Amino acid sequence: MALVVSASRIDSFDVHDVEQWRPLVAEIFPADEIDDVLSVMACESQGNPSTRYMEKWGVESVGLMQINEGWLTGWSRPEWSILSHNGQPVDLTDPATNLQAAKFIRFFEDSTDQEPWSQWACEP
User: Quick one: pLDDT band at residue 12, thresholds 50, 70, 90?
Assistant: First the structure.
C-alpha cells in the first residue's frame, strides 16, 4: 500500500471506505456524533486504520482518527494519558482502540469547554 503524506494530510493511497466503520463507530459514539466522526475520519485517514502522519512538531498521528501519540503519554498531565489496563500504550492502528481514544479526546474537549473537534486538523 502506497501512502503519500503532504501538507494537506493524505494525497493518495489505496482507497478505503469510511462507511465500513459505521457499525463500530455506532458502538462507541452517541448516535448524534456518528456522522461527525465519519466525516472527520474521511478527512484524517480516508478510513485507513494504518495511516500514520508525522506532525510538524515531531509527534506522530496514528490510525482512523489520527490520534497524536502525545495522548498516550499524557503530555504534562498524567490523567490525559490513554493507556491500557496494564499500563502499556495502546495500539492506535486497531480501529476499536483508535475510536475509543477519539471518544476520550471528545470527552476531554467537552469537559474543558473546548470547541468540538478542536483537537483534529479536520472538522465535520
Answer: very low
